[in-house]
Amino acid sequence: MPTDDPDVKLRNIERVYFKPDGSILVEALRGVDLDVPRGQSIAIMGASGSGKSTLMNILGCLDKPTSGTYTLDGSEVAKLDDQSLSSIRGKEIGFVFQSFNLIPQLTIEENVEVPLYYQQVPQSQRRKRTLEILDLVGLSNRVSHTPSELSGGQQQRAAIARALVTKPSILLADEPTGNLDSQTSGDVLELFESLHEDGLTTIMVTHDAEVGKRCQRIIDLKDGIIETDVYTQ
After folding, report:
1. Distance CA 194, CA 210 (A)
2. Which of 9, 53, 63, 118 has fewest C-beta within 10 Å?
């Protein structure tokens, strides 16, 4: 079990959603404590409504906890304003979604460049880094294609490239194989394993036990709390 200082540290994280009248609608997370050492691969699992998507959103700085502390790479982020959270997301965290979320009118190269454009990276550097990442994910021969000209697996690889182009310290993936057949899912998971072996922290939300088995650690949520936390490797 890793003993390095954690890249992510959650303490007593609660997330409550309220009705318009101020009464509690749902307690999505109820006192979650979690340490994620740098370079670990984690699967977050649980039934629908268990809190796994809420936990992912908080880890990704897309949502704020109602209470508790969240330390990311030594910085307390739970109480930062939206602009500061957006800056951290852009620099520290890459996102991969089940539905790919590629822009259909843009080429694959242009899609991958988008995060760098918003970070105001010079065009020559954007192109160099984008082509390097597309080569890493096996799409160097598809740079001028649009998403509709790619298979589902290729689109997911492009989405992974877009997440990696900013050189994040953490890669978050929400059901990354949910729209893929079994063969293509295996190829995508092999890419995640390769990224993990290169030292990237990877955290996947999944309902698929086979996906979970390929991660270093499986965290099961139930009713907003961590029910089990098991190291598989």
Report:
1. 17
2. 118
